[in-house]
C-alpha cells in the first residue's frame, strides 16, 4: 500500500472548524509575541470567583517555580457543573456505557451537580478538609467522575489510582501522599469479569495505618467485608446528605490533584497539578484539538485512572459543557465490534483512543468495523504512544471512511494536557506525525550536550517555556522535580522523549530515551519491574528492557539471574510473571523472561542496557562495542539463549 505523504485539511472541514489555518497562525503568533496577553484572554474561558491579574510567573532554573494566574480564585467543580446549570442543566453531561452492552445511563448536568454535592457532603461529614489527600480507586462508573469532582468541590486533593493496580501499588500511593480517606467500589467489571477492588483495598490497608475511612460505592452488589468504624457504604452515608454544597474558593495555585507516574528511577512520583492553569489548559485543548462544537457527543476511551481520563473524560469536556461518554468495558467484549457499536448507539461525534487498541482491532480485519455505520463520527484522536503509519491509515480509511481528520496528540501526565497535535480544520496531517505545537507551546530539540538543534533534525524533546497546564512539583519532593525534568538540559523542561522534526517543522515522536517503557500506552519504569522481580526469593538479579511488540508498541523483556542452586524451569518462569502481576498489576507482567547466568556489566558494575535492548529486539548483529564489559562472554550466552 502506498502511503500518502500528507493529507490536506478538507475545505469543508476548515470552513466549519473553530480554528482554520489562518486562525492557528494568528493564535500561534500572538501567543509567542505576548504570552501574558494571550493567556490573560484565554483565562476568560474559565469562571473565576476573582479573576487573575498576574498571569505568568515562571523560572525553569534554580529552584524552578511555575505559577500561572496566581492571584485568581476559582473552583474546578463549579467550572464543570454550576456554571452550566442555567444554560444546559438538562443537557446530558455523562453518557455511561456499561461493560454489559445492555446497561447504560444518561446523567444531566443538573443530576451530576446534585450527586457531586452529595458526595462532597459525605466527604465533609467524614472530616475531609481543604488540602487533604483523598485516594480514589474506582472502576469506570459515573461515581468515579463524581468522586473526582466532589474532591475538587471541597478543595481536597484527589489521587486517583488506576483500578488495575495491585494492593501493593495502591498502598505505596496511599502512603506517599499520606491519604487518610479512600473512595472505592465493591467490584469493577471489565470484559465480563469482576475486579475485586474492595478486597484489594483491604489488602493495601494492612500497610497503611494512616487510612482512617473507606467510602464504598455499591457497583456490582458483590460480597465484600466491611470493617466497623472504617468502612462506609456510600449509598447509606449519602441518603441523608443535602444536595447542595457550596464550592470552596481555591487559589489558582492550590493543588487540584496528584497522579502517580513511572519514571526511570525509583518509585512512581506524584505529579502535582494545580487548579487555575490546569483548568484553562484542559478547556483550551479539549475545545480546539477536538474542534468541539456545542451539542456534540465526545468519547475518550481511556480509564479515569490515567491522566487522559482526568483531562479528557472529566475536566476538559465538562468545563466546556460537553456530553462526555464513559465506557466501563474493553474493545473486544462481547466482540471486536464493540467500539463501533457504541459509536452508533450513542451517535458519537468525536472519538479518542490509543494506538494499541487500533492495532489490536486491525488484526480482526475490516469486518467488525464495516458492519457498523459510524456516520456520526467527525474527528478521530490518538494518544499514549507513537502511532505507526500503518495503524494511522487503517484508522483513517477503515474507521473514519477517509472523512474524519485524525489528531495524533502528544503529551504526558506532567504536561496536564495536549502540547503537540494537529487541529482538525487547520493542520494538514502526516500519518505517524503528531504534527505541530499548539499555540503557546515551544518545543525544542537538543543534542546530548544540551545544544539546541535547528531545522530538520532529531534530538531530545524539551519545552523551552512554560504553558498553564504544566505540573508544578513532585508531591513532597521538589528536589526530585528539579532533578528529573530540569537538570538534564539547563533552562528547559525535558520530556524524556526523543523526536524528529522534518522540513515542514512537523514533530515525529520516536519514543522514550530514558529507562521508561511504554506498554500499550501505559508508562512503566524498568526499575519498578526489576525491584518486583528481585523481591522474589529465587531471584538474585534482574534487568528489564523494552522491545518492539506488534500490538502493545513495546513489550517487557526481563533478564533474570536466579539464586545459586535454583533450577530455571518453565513453572518458575510462569510463577515470576504471576508474581510481577501480583506485585504491581497486570500491565507490568513481563512478555518474556530470559534466564541470564550473568548480565553484561562494565568493570564498575553498571549493567549495559544498550546491549540488553539489542538482544531483546533481536538486533544481535549490531551489538556495538562490548570490549568495555567485565566479561564479554556473558553476551554470547545471552544471544544464544534469546527468547523466540
Ligand atoms: O513517550 C510519550 C508517550 O507517552 C508518554 C507519556 O505517558 P503518560 O504520562 O502515561 O501519558 C500518556 C497520555 C498522554 C510520553 O512521554 N506518548 C504520549 N502520547 C504520544 C506519545 N508518544 C508518541 N505519540 C503520542 N501521540
Automatic annotation (TrEMBL):
Q: Which residues form the AMP-dependent synthetase/ligase domain?
A: 82-465
Q: Which Gene3D superfamilies match?
A: 3.30.300.30, N-terminal domain of ligase-like (3.40.50.12780)
Task: Return the EC number.
Answer: 6.2.1.1
EC supergroup of this enzyme? ligase
Chain positions recorded as CoA binding sites: 190-193, 308, 332, 520, 581
Q: Name the domain of life.
A: Bacteria
List, alphabetically, the InterPro entries matched: Ac_CoA_lig, ACAS_N, AMP-bd_C, AMP-bd_C_sf, AMP-binding_CS, AMP-dep_synth/lig_dom, ANL_N_sf
- Annotated ranges, domain AMP-binding enzyme C-terminal: 528-606
Which GO cellular component terms, listed alphabetically, does the Swiss-Prot or TrEMBL entry include?
cytosol
UniProt binding sites for ATP: 384-386, 408-413, 497, 512, 523
Query: Transport among the record's keywords?
Result: no
Catalysed reaction, written as an equation: acetate + ATP + CoA = acetyl-CoA + AMP + diphosphate
User: In what way is this protein post-translationally modified?
Assistant: Acetylated. Deacetylation by the SIR2-homolog deacetylase activates the enzyme.
Q: Which UniProt keywords apply?
A: Acetylation, ATP-binding, Ligase, Magnesium, Metal-binding, Nucleotide-binding
Give the matching Pfam families.
Answer: ACAS_N (PF16177), AMP-binding (PF00501), AMP-binding_C (PF13193)
Similarity comment text for this entry: Belongs to the ATP-dependent AMP-binding enzyme family.
Query: Which HAMAP family does this UniProt record tie to the protein?
Result: Ac_CoA_synth
Entry protein name? Acetyl-coenzyme A synthetase
Species of the source: Acidiphilium cryptum (strain JF-5)
Amino acid at each position: 500500500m502506498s502511503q500518502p505523504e500528507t493529507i490536506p485539511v478538507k475545505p469543508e472541514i476548515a470552513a466549519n472548524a473553530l480554528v482554520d489555518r489562518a486562525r492557528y497562525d494568528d493564535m500561534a503568533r500572538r501567543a509567542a509575541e505576548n504570552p501574558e496577553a494571550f493567556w490573560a484572554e484565554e483565562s476568560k474561558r474559565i469562571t473565576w470567583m476573582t479573576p487573575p491579574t498576574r498571569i505568568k510567573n515562571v523560572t525553569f532554573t534554580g529552584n524552578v517555580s511555575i505559577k500561572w494566574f496566581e492571584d485568581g480564585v476559582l473552583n474546578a467543580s463549579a467550572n464543570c457543573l454550576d456554571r452550566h446549570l442555567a444554560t444546559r442543566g438538562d443537557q446530558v453531561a455523562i453518557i455511561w456505557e456499561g461493560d454489559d452492552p445492555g446497561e447504560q445511563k444518561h446523567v444531566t448536568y443538573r443530576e451530576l451537580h446534585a450527586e457531586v454535592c452529595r458526595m462532597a457532603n459525605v466527604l465533609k461529614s467524614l472530616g475531609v478538609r481543604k488540602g487533604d489527600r483523598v485516594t480514589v480507586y474506582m472502576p469506570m462508573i459515573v461515581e468515579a467522575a463524581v468522586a473526582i469532582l466532589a474532591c475538587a468541590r471541597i478543595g481536597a486533593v484527589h489521587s486517583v489510582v488506576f483500578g488495575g493496580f495491585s494492593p501493593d501499588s495502591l498502598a505505596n500511593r496511599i502512603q506517599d501522599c499520606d491519604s487518610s480517606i479512600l473512595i472505592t467500589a465493591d467490584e469493577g467489571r471489565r470484559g465480563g469479569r469482576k475486579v475485586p477492588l474492595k478486597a484489594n483495598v483491604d489488602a493495601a490497608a494492612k500497610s497503611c495505618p494512616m487510612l482512617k475511612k473507606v467510602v464504598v460505592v455499591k457497583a456490582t452488589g458483590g460480597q465484600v467485608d466491611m470493617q466497623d468504624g472504617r468502612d462506609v457504604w456510600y449509598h447509606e452515608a449519602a441518603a441523608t446528605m443535602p444536595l447542595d454544597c457550596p464550592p470552596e474558593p481555591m487559589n489558582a495555585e492550590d493543588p487540584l490533584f496528584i497522579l502517580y507516574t513511572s519514571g526511570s528511577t525509583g518509585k512512581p512520583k506524584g505529579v502535582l497539578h494545580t487548579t487555575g492553569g490546569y483548568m484553562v489548559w484542559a478547556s483550551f485543548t479539549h475545545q480546539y484539538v477536538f474542534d468541539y462544537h456545542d451539542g456534540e457527543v465526545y468519547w475518550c476511551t481511556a480509564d479515569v485512572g490515567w491522566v487522559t481520563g482526568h483531562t479528557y473524560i472529566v475536566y476538559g469536556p465538562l468545563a466546556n459543557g460537553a456530553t462526555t461518554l464513559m465506557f466501563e468495558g474493553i474493545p473486544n467484549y462481547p466482540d471486536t465490534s464493540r467500539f463501533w457499536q457504541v459509536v452508533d448507539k450513542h451517535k458519537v461525534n468525536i472519538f479518542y483512543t490509543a494506538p494499541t487498541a487500533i492495532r489490536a482491532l486491525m488484526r480482526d480485519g475490516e469486518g467488525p468495523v464495516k458492519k457498523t455505520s459510524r456516520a456520526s463520527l467527525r474527528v478521530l484522536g490518538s494518544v499514549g504512544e507513537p502511532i505507526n503509519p500503518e495503524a494511522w491509515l487503517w484508522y483513517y480509511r477503515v474507521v473514519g471512511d477517509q472523512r474524519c481528520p485524525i489528531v495524533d496528540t502528544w503529551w504526558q501526565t506532567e504536561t496536564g494536557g495536549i502540547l503537540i497535535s494537529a487541529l482538525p480544520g487547520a493542520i494538514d496531517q502526516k500519518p505517524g506525525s503528531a504534527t505541530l505545537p499548539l499555540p503557546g507551546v515551544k518545543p525544542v530539540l537538543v543534542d546530548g550536550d544540551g545544544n539546541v538543534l535547528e531545522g530538520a533534525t532529531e534530538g531530545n524533546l524539551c519545552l523551552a517555556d512554560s504553558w498553564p497546564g504544566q505540573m508544578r512539583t513532585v508531591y513532597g519532593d521538589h528536589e526530585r522535580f528539579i532533578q528529573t525534568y530540569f537538570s538534564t538540559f539547563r533552562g528547559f523542561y525535558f520530556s524524556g522523549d526523543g523526536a524528529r522534526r522534518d522540513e515542514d517543522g512537523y514533530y515525529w515522536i520516536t519514543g522514550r530515551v530514558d529507562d521508561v517503557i511504554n506498554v500499550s500506552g501505559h508508562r512503566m519504569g524498568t526499575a519498578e519491574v526489576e525491584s518486583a522481580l528481585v523481591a522474589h526469593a529465587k531471584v538474585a538479579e534482574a534487568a528489564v528492557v523494552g522491545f518492539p511488540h506488534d500490538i502493545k508498541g513495546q513489550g517487557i523483556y526481563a533478564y533474570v539471574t536466579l539464586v545459586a542452586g535454583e533450577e530455571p524451569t518453565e513453572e518458575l518462569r510462569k510463577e515470576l510473571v504471576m508474581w510481577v502481576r501480583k506485585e504491581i498489576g497486570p500491565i507490568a507482567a513481563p512478555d518474556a523472561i530470559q534466564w541470564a547466568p550473568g548480565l553484561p556489566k562494565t568493570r564498575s558494575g553498571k549493567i549495559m542496557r544498550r546491549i540488553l535492548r539489542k538482544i531483546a529486539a533481536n538486533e544481535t548483529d549490531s551489538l556495538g562495542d562490548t570490549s568495555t564489559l567485565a566479561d564479554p562472554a556473558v553476551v554470547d550466552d545471552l544471544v544464544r539463549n534469546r527468547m523466540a
